[in-house]
Write a structure and sequence with these properties.
The protein is globular. Helix 4 crosses helix 12. 34% of the residues lie in helices and 24% in strands. The protein has two domains: 135 residues, ornithine cyclodeaminase, domain 1; 183 residues, Rossmann fold. By secondary structure, the protein is an alpha/beta fold. Strand 3 and strand 4 form a beta hairpin. The two termini are 19 Å apart.
């Protein structure tokens, strides 16, 4: 009997993943595909994040399995992200967040690729934010959009290209607890196409004041800052996009919003039950549901909270693997 030939197992480093990353407009399209699949009956399968909590304070490790159902078996996507967050790594000069993404053959379950999940996490998160800005951003006439960015870490930097692409000419106001990190991001913003003047602010509230779009991307903030950004900080018609759970955005902002969206209802409700969104209301809809329903942006404030879904990582990883195979990137590992 002839032994079956297993498909190649490819390892992609962070550099390989970056080299194979789709262009920005395609990343936005992949984000929309993911959100719509989650809102389509039978379109995807994805449980809420499975979590363990190692000993360092505020540490977590999440397993994020997901499947996208295609037109047939060979159009399905199957995989998982394994992501760890250790706040204590900052003191060691190590990344606070690290991740791997595994892709499996949908017909056999055989692993096809293992890749560094860091660049995927950064870019798929920024793309969902860009989708929210494009679909549910405020209408501004006669002047550039004013945007506030709270947090100048990896996620803040990954959003720069999205700000410039979706909101061309945007005036960016940046705050970070570390002034040096904020200054470094401002230098990067100055070289990013589509971004207009960038202003460093001395406080989060100063950055948010008068902003049309507010993105909070703080990481591992002190307890006294939790839900500090209340209605009083915000312009009446602002679009607020918290990607840091409830680190900055107060529950009253979501409760009083004209429209409150999340990326996936089940994951959001599970996190609220665990205390990560204390005081927050039920969402009006998911991003995908609102897109499918052609929901118009209402007057007033809109809040779009996306927690990061494993299906995004799998959808992005598939596009990256196809590009890597075409260009022979990465290392084929022995079985």
């Amino acid at each position: 009997m002839i032994a079956p030939i297993l498909p190649p197992l490819r390892w992609l480093s962070a550099a390989d993943v970056g080299a194979a990353m789709p262009p920005l407009e395609e990343r936005l399209a992949l984000a929309e595909r993911t959100m719509v699949a989650l809102a389509t009956p039978g379109g995807a399968e994805m449980p809420p994040k499975i979590a363990i909590h190692p000993r360092p304070d505020a540490a977590f490790v999440h397993a994020m399995p997901a499947m996208l159902r295609g037109a047939d078996l060979f159009g399905d996507l199957v995989g998982m992200k394994w992501v760890a967050g250790f706040a204590t790594n900052n003191e060691l000069g190590l990344p606070g967040i690290s991740a791997l993404v595994v892709l499996n053959d949908p017909a056999t379950g055989i692993p096809l690729a293992i890749m560094d999940g860091g660049p995927i996490t950064a870019q798929r998160t920024a793309a969902v934010s860009g989708l929210a800005m494009r679909r549910f951003g405020p209408t501004v006439a006669g002047r550039p959009v004013r945007a506030a960015l709270i947090g100048a870490g990896v996620q803040g930097r990954s959003h720069l290209a999205v700000f410039g692409h979706v909101l061309p000419g945007v005036e960016l106001h940046v705050f970070d607890r570390d002034p040096r990190r904020a200054a470094t991001l401002a230098e990067a913003a100055a070289g990013t196409p589509g971004i207009g003047p960038t202003t460093l602010e001395a406080s989060a509230r100063a950055a948010v004041d008068g902003a049309d779009v507010v993105l909070t991307a703080a990481s591992f903030g002190p307890a006294e800052e939790r839900q500090a950004m209340t209605n009083a900080w915000l312009a009446p018609g602002a679009t607020v996009i918290p990607i840091d759970y409830a680190t900055y955005c107060a529950a009253e902002v979501a409760r009083d919003a004209a429209l409150f969206l999340v990326d996936q209802r089940e994951q959001y409700l599970a996190n609220r039950e665990a205390g990560n969104f204390d005081g927050y209301p039920d969402p009006d809809a998911t991003i995908g549901e609102a897109i499918l329903a052609r929901t118009a942006r209402p007057p007033g404030r809109v809040v779009v909270a996306h927690l990061g879904v494993g299906l995004s990582d799998v959808v992005y990883a598939d596009a990256i693997l196809r590009a890597a195979e075409a260009r022979d990137l990465g290392v084929v590992l022995p079985r």
